[in-house]
Amino acid sequence: MRAPRALIPLLAVCGAAAVVVTAGAGAAIEGAPDLGPALADGAREVPAATVTAMTWNVCGDAAPGCPLGSRPADLVRDIPRQMADVRVGGRKVNMDAVFLQEVCSGHVTALRKTSQFKAWSWEFAPYRGADGSPRKCANGQGRLGVAIGSRERLTDVRATELPSPPGVRRVALCGQVGAWHAKLCTARLSTARWDDDPRGDWRRKQAQKVAEVAGTGRVVFGGDLGEQPESRHLDVLYRDYAECDQGPGTARTGAKTRQDWNGAPVEKTDYLFASAPAGISCGVPETPVRSSDHRPVGAVVRFPDRDAIIEAR
């Protein structure tokens, strides 16, 4: 089992499995904009930070397999309920950030107005169709896309279009949180029906772009990637970051997050990554989630202070 350079990571508990993970070193992409915090050797003042986060594909549009797609008010009520029930290592943890996919702008507007989230910072980015127009949700819920909610203020928020087939142009959404000296990012990659596209490998290209825009500073990235852990399309993310349920060493495993029509888990497609040298642990509900076809992933991420990083080298 790998030993961390700077911080002993938390015990990662996901379902019945228990694993210890240590983030791998981030790799810079030549010419890519790195919006993360500057962490040169002289930046010794960056303090330690602990960030709790949840990622969840809420299946928010009125489509087959989306239980609350036609009941937006019920879904808006269920999102904070799921956040309040996140367990890591058998304990409930209070959320600092949430990453939502397949969410409608109307849901995000409603969340902003709830008493629980009025002080939070919320950002939304829509998917776009072949003509560049935003994808619309049913029932007057606005546009379909991804969102980030943060207890601390989000700044320098950017939506980056990912390489995509013509049907749906995917997007990655990132924002800085100065209080944690970290960047938060989310995305949902293209769906499996594009696998046979002769121009192919869309998810590999999309994962590469996500790693590029997330950068090499402190990063927490959550999303529905449409792939199982062993997929080569996710190699770049596993190379540059650590996934909260990836297992010891370089093992790529994890509790199943996508459910069938009966609520039974069928495969892992939802992920929470963090950059080196963070300690990261996570949990996935062991019982069916009736409001979506995905189960959420919750995590605790502990970034050491900059002095600890330097001294451990």
Describe the protein in words:
It is built from five helices and 20 strands. It has helices at residues 72-84, 105-113, 202-214, 235-240, 306-311, and strands at 11-14, 17-20, 49-57, 87-88, 91-92, 97-104, 121-126, 128-129, 144-150, 154-161, 168-169, 171-177, 182-188, 219-224, 242-243, 258-259, 265-267, 270-274, 279-283, 297-303. The protein is of the alpha+beta class. It is globular.
Any key phrases for this structure?
313 residues; alpha+beta; 6-stranded mixed β-sheet; 5 helices; 15% helix; 31% strand; disordered N terminus
Helix content: 10-25%
Count of DSSP helices?
5
**Strand composition percent:** 25-35%
- Spell out the helices and strands N to C: EEEHEEEHEEEEEEEHEHEEEEEEH
Give the overall average pLDDT.
Answer: 85
Low-confidence parts? 1-43
Strands, total number: 20
Lateral arrangement of strands in the main beta sheet: 7-9-6-3-20-19
What is the end-to-end distance?
A: 19 Å
Structural class: alpha+beta
Radius of gyration: 18 Å
Quick one: biggest sheet? 6 strands, mixed
The geometry reads as globular
Summarize the structure.
The protein is α+β, with helices and mostly antiparallel strands.
Secondary-structure blueprint of this entry?
Layout: E1 11-14, E2 17-20, E3 49-57, H1 72-84, E4 87-88, E5 91-92, E6 97-104, H2 105-113, E7 121-126, E8 128-129, E9 144-150, E10 154-161, E11 168-169, E12 171-177, E13 182-188, H3 202-214, E14 219-224, H4 235-240, E15 242-243, E16 258-259, E17 265-267, E18 270-274, E19 279-283, E20 297-303, H5 306-311
Parallel strand pairs: 3-6, 13-14
Antiparallel strand pairs: 1-2, 3-20, 4-5, 6-9, 7-9, 8-11, 10-12, 12-13, 14-18, 15-18, 16-17, 19-20
Helix pairs in contact: 1-2
